[in-house]
Amino acid sequence: MQSWQVAVWERLQQQHDRGSLAHAYLAYGEQGIGKFDLLRHFARYLLCKSPVTGSLCGTCVNCALAEGGAHPDVLIVAPEEGSRDIKIDQIRSLAEFVARTSHSGLMKVIVINQAHQLNVAAANSLLKTLEEPASKTVLFLVTERPGSLPATLRSRCQRLQFATPAIGVTADWLTAKGLTASDALTLATAAGSRPLYALALAERDGVNGAQDFLRQLSRLLQSQSLLQHCVAVALKLGEAVAVEYLLRASTIVIRSLSQEEEPGDQVLAEVLHNLRAAAVRKEELLRKLLAFNALAEQAQREVHGSTNPNPQLLLESLLWQWSKLGPVRHSSRARG
Ligand SMILES: [Zn+2]
User: Fold this and answer.
1) Of 70 and 328, which is predicted with more confidence?
2) How remote is the CA of residue 66 from the centroid of ligand 1, in Å?
3) N or C: which terminus of the chain has fewer CB atoms within 10 Å of its end residue's CB?
4) Under CATH, what is the fold of the domain 3-161?
């Protein structure tokens, strides 16, 4: 368990000790902070034959089975490979799992990851299961978008909020994973302080990928002629990551601007400097940045939604809007 998850863990553990675990939980919080990992660990704890002071023993037969990912009393549900949706067949199997007797004689635990990807038929089918709760069975719906789940499903779940750790906590955690302090801070910032997401970025693009893209964003504010180059760099990163960076970068500079603070990250400080050079009033700049931020949020929804937007067009449009945040440029040929 991670340091930023202690509160959630203790709450679940105490409910279990008191025999007051809910039948279903809506486990929500930002993507990339370790919700699923914690709940999988809690599933193992529930099945451990001899837990020691709030922790699983790691050696009993149930711990061994669960460690290998093969415990018959744990069911993990997520979109299958190549599919965005969780489908009704998967929920039918879940209903069979609920109806079965527990192998261990202890609990049965279901963790539905990416629960916002349940399609309509699957969600309706799951609702029927939730309407008739089975004893000694607990279900976790894990999602970063709780609002995307039907209200009928949400209302049957106890809410379990996962907090995003502070930037310092995330940076320390990344440092412990082997990153230098400076790289850790850069990535923690770029990832909105989401530790697992930051680590995934580090493994995929390296710190240089993040820094390079942010630097391109800074330059794009000075010269719109870099648009196509910037689009190419963004496409290399992948549209989801690039949109994420644009959203985070704009969020951070908005915060810095409104609180009159310099961003902790050097490249973002440069971005803010270039934005200020746009020589408009602060209120005007903030208004433009907020409008851009809303566009980036919309783009993020499209990237993760089911409409499959064209990455090239999406990034061109978003980066064009970004470039327009820079100083107004007059044509060099203009006279008088
Ligand atoms: Zn055990």
Assistant:
1) 70
2) 9
3) C
4) Rossmann fold (3.40.50)
